[in-house]
Write a structure and sequence with these properties.
The protein has 369 residues and is α/β, with parallel strands linked by helices. It is built from 20 helices and 11 strands.
Length: 369
């Protein structure tokens, strides 16, 4: 697959810039006029996080700067990590309500990290996650990028991840609502392509720690986009999605929001938590966006360096590499929801353990009635 000269120059400039690291997982050969990818390629640029062979990195398997963030923000260290993983696996093994759950480090750590290594809270997120996938199985299961309607949404750039990390070490998820035709696609297509994107990204442990930035171009949004959902199902999907998906959402930026659909923004704001709401920002221009979001992570169409089409090609390779892993998530089952802490069963279980009672307020906020 040939790359144009813009990409060639971008690579040369980025490699030569002080403080920038380029990680390329591939074998490259080239002639006078083109680069050719000989194997599956994933290119992620970020500011240099330091050598990965120091003591902290060796203990956690994370790069130096990422390990420092994990220690500082998530209370993650070698002892805590090993202890919590062992206890988490034992809890899953003994929990008769959970079937076919993944217990590898990568999978369990995403839940521990999103709850800063509070094991009871991580357990609750796992239960909610499986319940979310099961409750909305008609929308979530068989999230296969090879389904033609899903392939189309990925290929046309409705949602994809930038191949570059920003200056905070985060992957940036890009959305373009004009690429979703509500007269052609349905809520199942929308849910599947979102789930594929998020599941692929949280497989990466560095992203589990550093979190994500979202940038959404809402140009051409219309009331028709809302008609693919019933009000109840949309409300539940948004609330449960925030509670259940083990992702650290650090920033959410919206651009080109038509005045006619500002009500949609108000609706979303009302459904999400206060913390999530505080991270939402509407921009009235690309210039405003570029002041808050590292320009190098944006597509050329929004003032970045790499054209959107090239970003999407790289993203499709990432998605393809994780296809079997994503599809295998459908095997997990929750036989009963009795262990999920809610407002209702909190009040019915006043004799719960002291630790669980101390966490009651946090879980109450996560309930969807």
């Amino acid at each position: 697959m040939p790359f144009n000269s813009n990409w060639k120059l971008l690579c040369v400039r980025a490699c030569g810039r002080a403080g920038v690291c380029v990680r390329v997982i591939s074998v490259w050969t080239f002639n006078e006029n083109q680069f050719r990818i000989m194997t599956t390629t994933r290119v992620i640029m970020s500011y240099q996080w330091g050598a990965a062979n120091n003591e902290k990195a060796a203990m956690t398997g994370l790069k130096e700067e990422v390990a420092r963030v994990a220690d500082r923000e998530l209370r993650e260290n070698k002892s805590t990590r090993e202890q919590m993983l062992e206890q988490f696996r034992e809890w899953i093994r003994k929990n008769q309500d959970i079937c076919n759950c993944r217990t590898d480090d990568n999978f369990l750590l995403r839940f521990l990290r999103v709850k800063k290594f509070s094991l009871p809270m991580a357990q609750q997120v796992l239960l909610k996650y499986i319940n979310f996938r099961q409750t909305f199985s008609h929308l979530v299961c068989n999230s296969d990028y090879l389904i033609p309607s899903v392939t189309e949404l990925i290929s046309n750039g409705y949602i994809y991840a930038s191949p570059f990390r920003d200056s905070n070490g985060r992957r940036v998820i890009l959305y373009n609502l004009s690429k979703f035709d509500p007269h052609k696609h349905n809520n199942s297509d929308m849910t599947k392509v979102h789930m594929i994107t998020y599941e692929v990204l949280i497989e990466d442990e560095e992203s589990q720690v550093m979190g994500f930035t979202h940038v959404a171009d809402i140009h051409h949004a219309s009331p028709a986009h809302a008609t693919i959902w019933s009000p109840t199902e949309f409300s539940t999907m948004v609330k449960w999605g925030e509670q259940s998906l083990p992702m650290r959402h650090k920033e959410i930026h919206l651009i080109n929001v038509p005045a006619a659909v500002r009500y949609f923004y108000d609706l979303i704001s009302a459904l999400v938590s206060d913390k999530m709401r505080s991270r939402l920002k509407i921009h009235d221009s690309v210039e405003s966006l570029r002041k808050r979001v590292d320009p190098k992570v944006l597509p050329k169409e929004l003032g970045g360096h790499m054209p959107m089409a090239e970003m999407i090609d790289l993203w499709k390779k990432e998605v393809s590499a994780k296809r079997e892993s994503i599809l295998s998530l459908d095997d997990m089952k929750l036989l009963s929801t009795k262990s999920i802490i809610t407002r209702r069963n909190n009040q019915q279980n006043e004799n719960s353990s002291l630790m669980i009672n101390s966490l009651q307020g946090s879980f109450r906020r996560l309930e969807v009635d």
